[in-house]
Write a structure and sequence with these properties.
Blueprint (H helix, E strand, L loop, with lengths): L6 H10 L5 E2 L7 E2 L18 E7 L3 H12 L4 E4 L26 E2 L3 H9 L4 E2 L10 E5 L2 E4 H4 L19 H7 L24 H8 L4 H8 L12 H20 L6 E4 L4 H9 L11 E6 L4 E5 L4 E9 L3 H4 L3 E3 L4 H9 L1 E2 L2 E8 L3 H5 L4 E4 L5 E5 L9 E7 L1 H4 L6 H15 L7 E7 L12 E2 L4 H6 L9 E3 L10 H17 L3
Parallel strand pairs: 3-4, 3-12, 7-16, 10-13, 12-21
Antiparallel strand pairs: 1-2, 5-9, 6-9, 7-8, 10-11, 11-12, 14-20, 15-18, 15-19, 16-17, 17-18
Helix pairs in contact: 1-16, 2-16
């Protein structure tokens, strides 16, 4: 494979290694961190004029993985984080019963870097119960309600033949991945010119190349995790499902291991442990507004008036947030354009305590999938046995934009009103407890990168290019994996790029 996190960088790490790096066990040779032993050192102050070997901006998975790898090679590393907490989009909601994950839900069986890191940090992994999210659903579309058993013969079902058996919430997955040109190909093939023909509006691909009617495309648009189906590259979605298929195939090849796992006590614990390994404690509430690279060192300027200096920098700031960061010298035109144009998917979660089992009142499935403003409503079973712990409404795409200017109280009221309108048995059964949105977080920008038509062909092959002494990480720069493993992949690649300049 041609990915920059492949053989070239394994050799680079070997060149600079002061300890042993262990192969992570994936098909493309993921690296895993060795233990970062040593007593914690006192943090250097901004006024000390101290020049670190490396500063890592962002204390999510990619930044912390890069920082640990660099420290493992003997570098003096400082991590800056703009939020008042660690973790980025890995965020366990510890105060909600059952400790649901706000993002970064499941660790796939092929997440070799993440699994190896969790084990090295002595974290317990477990396989969640199959029903930890109630899978049976009540469907509500165009003002009509029906169960999954009724869909195949329903008047709203415009699919033909065997496709009529596909439930509405499975259409996006099943129909996108059918005859996927990326299936079985190397995971970095999606950026090759031969696949540029698919870097077109997803709706056009489904309509013109796959022959699906408008009603089917409309159903697929309900839960697309971008903004809408017309403004999403088909290649983005094809890659998404090809990666999932690869992970599923790898999981089947190891039937002795669970296909999906979580960290006992919450995935946030892997973040905490990674941060604890660092000699210099992570500095929180250090929102960066500028980088000044004079060729020998980089000054990192924060909104609180502090400045930190390093020979090199790893920057894992998401592109929509990076749009407000100034660079000296200025970025090349292509990268400046990419930062302004590339966006992240938007979603919003409204969490509830379940104070009455309303589904026992109306005799219908507990969870819902709808074309209503709240889109999906899931009853979570994260307690012992079949115990219900909480519920959440999950809104993404265009619908989520309607919530952007609402207060939490207004979001609660609006969501409850819609739930009660569609399903009267929910009245008085739910108590709102939290609104969570990566998009509303000024440091988050959204859930994960999504590519608009034409952007993959224009930008995807370049996002790993350094700018002087600044190296870029983050899930949006990963070529092989996506999600949490993509973050690990990007941190590893940025660290090895940096080490080649030591």
């Amino acid at each position: 494979m041609s990915d920059s996190g492949g053989k070239k960088h394994i050799n680079a790490l070997d060149k600079f290694s002061r300890r042993t790096f262990v192969a992570g066990g994936t098909a493309f040779g993921a690296l895993a961190i060795a233990g970062c032993a040593g007593e914690a050192a006192a943090p250097k102050t901004a006024s000390s004029e101290h020049v670190y070997d490396a500063i890592v901006v962002g204390a999510g998975l990619s930044g912390l993985h890069a920082a640990n790898l660099l420290q493992e090679q003997g570098l003096d590393v400082l991590v800056l984080e703009g939020r008042n907490r660690l973790g980025g989009r890995v965020y366990t909601l510890m105060d909600i019963p059952g400790k649901p994950e706000a993002a970064g839900e499941l660790i796939g069986g092929n997440y070799a870097r993440m699994l190896d890191t969790a084990r090295r940090l002595d974290l317990e992994l477990f396989e969640p119960e199959p029903g930890f999210i109630a899978s049976e659903k009540l469907y509500h579309l165009k003002g009509q309600q029906f169960t999954g058993d009724e869909w195949a013969s329903h008047a709203l079902n415009t699919l033909k033949g065997e496709n009529r058996e596909l439930l509405p919430d499975r259409l996006l997955w099943e129909l996108t991945n059918r005859d996927n040109p990326l299936t079985g190909k190397p995971l970095d093939d999606w950026i090759k010119p031969e696949y540029a023909q698919y870097d077109v509006p997803f709706s056009d691909y489904l309509r013109n190349q796959r022959g699906y009617d408008e009603q089917t495309i409309e159903l697929m648009d309900i839960i697309i995790h971008t903004d809408n189906i017309d403004n999403t590259s088909a290649l983005h979605e094809l890659r998404r499902y090809a990666v999932n298929d690869f992970n599923s195939a790898m999981a089947k090849a190891r039937p002795d291991l669970p296909a999906f796992q979580q960290v006992r006590g919450g995935n946030t614990l892997i973040i905490d442990k990674m941060a604890e390994k660092l000699n210099n404690p992570v500095l929180l509430e250090k929102s960066v507004f500028g980088f000044d690279d004079d060729g020998s060192k980089v000054e990192v300027n924060c909104h609180d008036g502090t400045t930190y200096r390093a020979k090199q920098v790893v920057c894992s700031i998401p592109y929509p947030v990076l749009n407000a960061v100034k660079f000296a010298p200025r970025l090349p035109t292509w990268m400046d354009n990419a930062i302004r144009e590339i966006d992240y998917g938007i979603s919003l979660q409204v969490h509830f305590l379940v104070e009455r089992k309303f589904w026992e009142d109306d005799g219908l499935p507990a969870s819902m999938w709808t074309d209503a403003p709240f889109e999906r409503f899931a009853v979570l079973r994260r307690g012992e046995g079949d115990e219900v712990t909480s519920a959440l409404a999950f809104i993404n795409g265009d619908e989520a934009f309607k919530y952007e200017m609402m207060s939490d109280e207004a979001i609660y009221a609006h969501t409850l009103a819609e739930l009660e309108r569609i399903r009267p048995s929910t009245k008085g059964a739910l108590k709102p407890i939290m609104v969570q949105s990566c998009h509303r977080d000024v440091h988050g920008a959204g859930d994960w990168v999504f590519w608009r038509p034409g952007q993959i062909q224009t930008y995807a092959g370049k996002l790993r290019d350094p700018h002087g002494n600044i190296h870029f990480a983050g899930e949006h720069t990963a070529l092989l994996e996506r999600g949490m493993e993509g973050a690990f992949e990007s941190g590893e690649r940025a660290a090895t790029d940096l080490l080649q300049r030591v």
